[in-house]
Amino acid sequence: MRARVFPDYEAMGAAAADAVARALGEDPSAVLLLPTGTTPLGMYRRLVDMHRLGEVSFLRATFFNLDEYLGLVPDHPASYHVYMKEHFYGLIDADPARIFVPDGAAPDPEAECERYEAAIREAGGVDVCVLGIGRNGHIGFNEPGAPFDSRTRVVTLSESTRLVNAADFEANRAPEQAITVGMATIFESNEVLLLASGTNKASAVAAALEGDVSESMPASMLTLHQRTVLFLDEDAASDLGHGVPG
Ligand code: GLP
Fold first, then answer.
1. pLDDT score of 1
2. How far apart are CA 51 and CA 190, in angstroms?
3. Distance of CA 169 to the CA centre of its chain
4. Which residue, 37, 42, 179, 227, has most beta carbons within 10 Å?
5. What is the pLDDT of residue 245?
6. How far is it, in rounded angstroms, from Cα 76 to Cα 55?
7. Do 230 and 4 touch, CB atoms closer than 8 A?
8. How far apart are CA 223 and CA 212, in angstroms?
């Protein structure tokens, strides 16, 4: 695992967008596994700009999202379906037939997870996975304790994650469960870009990078992945004690 540190959020997002665009330049039919949250917004903005300038096309790419809240219909304003449409899929030339987001309102969530995992397999696996990181080290919605061999499944969110995400919901109450792509599926991605910005991510970044590899710190699994690059702004890198592994 390598880390790259950028002076600020904008520079980090631009570099991540360049890395995604480069992967699509090499393989226009690449399979992408993508995050939500505030962290990737700069990357999405830059990719949309590049698309408008004719620098990148997404027409042949396949898109999977990492996660979705359980119980939310796809047009719920806090759903990740809506987030992705507003910030990315609705602004580029993506083929709707190749956009996949877990259906949080599926009548049989377990079957939905199996269907989703099978769709990733049928697409040939993930070429580029982009991740954010939770303050407790979660990736996707794989909370501390998530088995490294896990696949797409229904998970219970930690209280701390629900608190951080509460503002998106009426009465400040986030759903208790979600569907997330599993740790093993993430790990099998050919390339992983993990983005982190701000001092509130600094301790999770340092623990993931410099602490023990442990299921209690999900992002630590990526230190075992040959082609993972951390994209950090200076604030997110501020707790690294051993310098930046380059
Ligand atoms: C959510 C998402 C994660 C995301 C994390 C960090 O819980 N499920 O995929 O990485 O939050 O979000 P943010 O980038 O807003 O800090």
1. 87
2. 24
3. 20
4. 179
5. 73
6. 32
7. yes
8. 10
- Which tokens belong to 243? 């310098």
Establish whether residue 66 lines the binding site of ligand 1, counting it when its CB lies within 6 angstroms of any ligand atom: yes
Model pTM score:
0.97
With a 6 A CB cut-off, is 134 part of the ligand 1 pocket? yes
φ, ψ of residue 177 in degrees (nearest 5): -130, 165
Distance 131 CA to ligand 1 centre (A): 8
Does 132 sit in the ligand 1 pocket, CB within 6 Å?
yes
Closest ligand 1 atom to 201 CA: 16
pLDDT at 172: 83
Q: What are phi and psi of 191, to 5 degrees?
A: -140, 140
* Alpha-carbon gap, residue 80 to 67, rounded angstroms: 8
Stretches where the chain sits below pLDDT 70 are: 246
Nearest CA residue ID for atom 9, ligand 1:
140
Q: State the distance from the centre of ligand 1 to the C-alpha of 133, rounded, in angstroms.
A: 6
CB burial class (10 A; 0-12, 13-18, 19+) of residue 216? middle
- 65, 81, 127, 136: which is the annotated catalytic residue? 136
pLDDT of residue 196: 98
| Atom 12 of ligand 1, nearest CA residue | 37
What's the pLDDT score for residue 171? 81
Place of tokens 């620098």: 55
Other CB atoms within 10 A of residue 10 CB:
14
**What SS3 class is residue 111?**
helix
Cβ of 74 less than 6 Å from ligand 1: no
Catalytic pick from 138, 165, 225, 235?
138
Q: Which of 19, 38, 32, 3 is nearest to 205 (CA)?
A: 3
